[in-house]
Each structure stands twice: as structure tokens, then as C-alpha cells.
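Field reference: sequence -> structure
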Amino acid sequence: ASDAYLKAINLDPLTVHAYMGLANICAQTGFPDQAFKWYELAAKAAPNYSAAWTSMAVMEGRRGNFKQAVPLAEKACALDPKDPVNAANLALAYHRVGRTKDRDKMYKKAEQLGYRNLANLQELFR
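Structure field:
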């Protein structure tokens, strides 16, 4: 899959889904630094693609960079405020920096938008 994604990028450097695919492979195989770089390239290729921004926020969280995760997650929510994953990731980012009122507000928004993993999110809050 990695070779196919790289070939797609060579053919069209604005192929955002190829960057996302490479990033997802890195994220799933335990390479958050490389994953972040691929997500960042996806965001550069398609600046309004909220999935790239929320994915960067998740990677920052995995790397322990909680303060850096917040503006990335906020950007994702600003780009697509109706995406429940963006709301949930912002709630988690707020939680990790101690902004509990903002966390609770975004949790409720994620719930209203139909986020399917509320129990997992609650567990992370504990």
C-alpha cells in the first residue's frame, strides 16, 4: 500500500488521500512522528480538509504534546463543525490540558452529533 500511495503522490502531489493513507499506516504501526509529517503534508495539499487537522491533533496527543494538539483540533472543528470525530478529538485535547468546561461543551457537541465511541471518550477522561 505504501508504494501505491507514494506513486500516487509522485503523479499528483495534491493527492490528499495518499498522504492520509501513508500517515495512517505510520500511525497504526507505531510511528507517530512520521504519521504527523504525512498528515501535515495532507493539510498542506488540502488546507480545508478537517480530517488532516484532527489527525495531527491525535498524533500530537500520542506524542505527549497536548498543548500543540489543541489548536490543531480547534482548526478541524472550525473547518467541519458537524463532524462528531472532530468534536470528540477537541474534547480530548481540552481534557488533556485541563480545560474541563471546554471539554464538557465539546463532549456534549460530540454526543449531539452522534459520536459513536462516547464510552471510550469517557474512559479517557477518567
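Note: The CA atoms of residues 53 and 76 lie 5 Å apart.
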